[in-house]
Amino acid sequence: MANEVTTYQNYINGSFVSAQEHIDVRNPANGELLSRIPESSPDDVERALHAAREAQKPWARLPAVERAAFLNTLADRIRSQASALARVISAEQGKISGLAEVEVNFTADYLDYMAGWARRIEGEIIESDRPRENIFLFRKPLGVVAGILPWNFPFFLIARKMAPALVTGNTIVIKPSEETPNNCFEFTRLLDQIGLPAGVFNVVSGSGASTGNALTASPIVDMVSFTGSVETGSAIMRNAADHITKVNLELGGKAPAIVLDDADLDLAVQAIRGSRIINTGQVCNCAERVYVQRGVAEQFADRIGQAMASTTYGDPLAQPDIEMGPLINQAGLDKVAAMVERANQAGAQLVTGGGVADLGQGFHYKPTVLTGCQSDMEIMRKEIFGPVLPIQIVDDLDEALAMANDSDYGLTSSVYTRDLSSAMHACRELDFGETYVNRENFEAMQGFHAGTRKSGIGGADGKHGLYEYTRTHVVYLEI
Ligand code: NAD
C-alpha cells in the first residue's frame, strides 16, 4: 500500500504557511512519492527574513540560559520521537535505519551540548595604556543567519547551524535540501510545540537556484552558514560579496587515508571500509583515496576488497539489517558510475565491484575497490561521493604526504601506523582541517570541524564553532 503523501508548509514567524508552487520528494530506494514541499518564491524568503529580523533584538536580550532552555526542551522532544524521525530520514535520503537513529540521537545531544555553552559565552577585559580607562570586549550575535543545508546528514545539520546561532542570540532562516526536506519539517513540527518566540526559527524550502539564491542575495542576512558542494559555495560567496555578508562554508572533501607498513591492518581495513560504506560513501569527511605503503599494499587491497564485497545493500526501510542504502539520486549514481569507468580506462584495476547494482529499483552502486591508481587520475582528485575506494601504492610516508596535500580539498585526513614519530610527522605535515590517527574519520561535537583550501571557510562545533556566530564589540570606557 502506498504511504500518504504529505504536503508540507513553510514555517514563517511562528506559523505554518502555504506556498504557491511545490516540488515532489521521492524515496531514492524505490521512487515512491513521499511529499510535496514548497518551492518558495523570493517573496516567501523575504517574509521569513523580515520575521527573523524583527525577532532578533528581543531574542538577543533574553539571558542566554533562557535561550538555551528551548534547545534542551527540543532535544527531549526529539529523543522521544527518535524512531519515527529516523524513518523519515531513511525514506527520503536512503540512510540505513541504524545510522538514521544515530543521527537523530546525536542531533538531540548536539542541542544539549550547545545549550551548555550558555553560561560560558565570554568577552574580555583588556589592560589599557591609559590610567583611567577600561577596555571591554563584548561578544555579540551577528543578527540574522541563513542556514542552507545539504542532503547527506540533513537532520543533524539543522542543529549544527541553529543551536550555536540561537544560543548566542541570533535568529535563523533554514533552507533544507530539496532532496531531503521532510525531516526538517518534522523537526519544525516539534519545535513549534515548545513556545519559541515567533520569528526566531523559520524554514523556507525550495530549489537552490531560486529559494537558495534569494536567501543568499538578501541584504537582510548577516551570515550565510552553508554546507554543500564547492560549486554552490562559490555561488554563495559571489552573492554574499554584494552586501559584504559573512559566510561560513563547509564544503566538499577528498580525504586521504595513509596506511603504512607498520599499521594494524585489521584496524585499517575495518575503519576504511566503514568510511566508504557509511551513508553509501556520501560523507564529506570519509576516506576517499588510500595511499598504502608497498610492503602491505597487496595484503591491504585483498582484505579490503573482500570486506567491501561482503557489504549488504538494498532498501533501508524494507530491509532494516542491510549495511548500505542507495545513492541519493540518478545524477549521483551516473556520476559515480562514470568516474569508475574513466578510472578503468585510465589504467586502474577493479578488485571488487564496479557497476550499477541491479536491484530492480533504486540508485544502487556496487561496493567497489580499485588498485593501480595514480595521483593524476580523476578518481584520486575529484570527490566521488559513493561506495568506491581508489588505492595508490607509495614507497614511504613522505611520498604519501606529498600526494595527500596535493589536492584542491583540505577537509579531513587519516593515518594508520604503530609508530608514534611517523604519526606525529604526518600530523605536522598534513595540510588539512582534521587528521584522524588509527581511527575512523568521524568528528566529535567538542572538536572543530573545518576545512582548508576549497573545503571551506570557518567551521563548526566546539567553542570555535560557537563563536563563528558572534562578532566582537570593543568598548573604551574612561571613568
Ligand atoms: P549542493 O551544493 O548541491 O546543495 C546544498 C544546498 O545548497 C541545497 O540546499 C541546495 O538547494 C542549495 N543550493 C544549490 N544552489 C544554490 C545557490 N545557487 N544558492 C544558494 N543555495 C543553493 O550540495 P549537496 O549535493 O546537497 O551536498 C553534497 C555536498 O556537500 C558534497 O560536496 C559534500 O562533500 C558536501 N558536504 C560537506 C560537509 C562539510 O561539513 N564540509 C558536510 C556535508 C556535505
From TrEMBL:
One GO term (biological process): carbohydrate catabolic process
Record flagged with keyword Flavoprotein: no
Signal sequence region: none
InterPro entries: Ald_DH/histidinol_DH, Ald_DH_C, Ald_DH_CS_GLU, Ald_DH_N, Aldehyde_DH_dom, Aldehyde_DH_Superfamily
PROSITE patterns to which the protein is assigned, alphabetical: ALDEHYDE_DEHYDR_GLU
Occurrences of domain Aldehyde dehydrogenase (ranges): 18-475
Pathway where it operates: Carbohydrate degradation
Record GO terms (molecular function): aldehyde dehydrogenase [NAD(P)+] activity; identical protein binding; succinate-semialdehyde dehydrogenase (NAD+) activity
Domain of life: Bacteria
Active site (UniProt): E250
Pfam families: Aldedh (PF00171)
Keywords noted in UniProt: Oxidoreductase
One of the record's GO cellular component terms: cytosol
PANTHER family: SUCCINATE-SEMIALDEHYDE DEHYDROGENASE, MITOCHONDRIAL
Family label: Belongs to the aldehyde dehydrogenase family.
Protein name: Aldehyde dehydrogenase
Organism: Halomonas huangheensis
